[in-house]
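Morning. Coffee machine broken again, so started the prediction first thing and wrote up yesterday's gels while waiting. Chain of 442 residues, entered below exactly as on the submission form.
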Amino acid sequence: MIKFYTSTIMILILTLGIACNKETKETQDVVQETEISGFLTEHSFGSSTGLENAEMNIKFWKKKLASSPESMTYHSKLASAYASRFSIIKDINDLQKADSLYTVAFNLAGGKNVDNLQAMGHLAITRHKFTEAQQWGLKALEVGDKKTASHKLLFDALMERGDYELAKKHLSKLENKNSFAYLIRLSKYKDHEGNLDSALHYMERAKKRIGHNHTLRAWSESNLGDMYGHANHIQKSYDSYMQVLHDEQTGASWLHSLEGIAWIAYAHDDNADLARQILTYVDDRIQSPGVKLKLAEIAEYQNKPLKKEQYLQAFLEEAGKPVYQGMYDAKLIEIAATEMSNYDRAKKLVAEELRNRPNPSTYNLKALNYLEMGKAEKALEIIESKVKDRTYEPVPVLNMARVYKANGMFEKAQEYFEEALLAGYELGPVTVNNIKNELEQM
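Came back before lunch.
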């Protein structure tokens, strides 16, 4: 998110009702239903994502492993195949199988194979085990081979853990400053600093370095789609997502792009019905529960409280299963604090999340729980020491505004509410309306 300081634009937004206004529509629709409907088929999903290839790879490496059960290479190859399928359909059982296979490969190699150590580190990131990922990266560095890949792994893990300076040091170890791997990580670091224009610049440069790798090209385009949206370049965002839908072997990026298009339909076009149709298509094809939260928000926007509750309960039932091992803790904390008033549950989950991911966003959740409990001073202490000037993401910015307001610091509250409102597209219409109500009450 870009860091803004002026409120001139805000005055225009509040006066004219530009941001996500349900009554007036001053912009053209971006999402064309006729253009999208052709992609919402089973054939498109199977062929465009590469799921069919992922299934064939699993069968192939299963057969190879059966013929040579002591092969470290075959264990690793089958683990990678399961991880690839997980990226598409999000079946948590695939991650478990991959983890078990990599563990066997680790033991067969005596813990000294750097490729295996790095693979286990990347899998740990996928499982949101960021402390574990950091440990695997450090072990890989100790082995001494392929250090560049280990530095990349450590950068990724440390950024999630909020150790930004150390992450930057590992990034500096990458010698080729024009490589795809370096540029996408520099983009991520610039985004962390609140410099979205610079982040976009480096991601656009990275895309030019890909060549003919369909999966990487789709990943870059879908990430650019997200970033253009955050920068309020909605047509560019849509065009990037559409590039992915027209490509092949796109992996996880195909359904991700459909989700992005659904968000444009909802948050920009005010076409909640189309957004729900697209998200339902995505939800029916993946086994992780995350999409249900977007469906719940659309239900709230359409004033369907029973439907919202159904989606929330479905999310909670699935995300709370032990098999996910904390992958959805951040969302579970937010729901426990704001929807269920279960502050003890939120407090317990925050403690677990801080051990794994002690970054400003997690501390923001800790402050949010205190705020919902009515302990505004405690919440203020946390955001002042752990969140402020450490992240420019819109959700923490919004929660900082609420904390300042609860502590009677109305000038600061207004500044942060206005900054959050500039990210109205990213936050969505429900949150935008809540922010406007907060501002009107001040």
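Confidence is low (pLDDT under 50) at residues 1-24. Going to sketch it on the whiteboard this afternoon.
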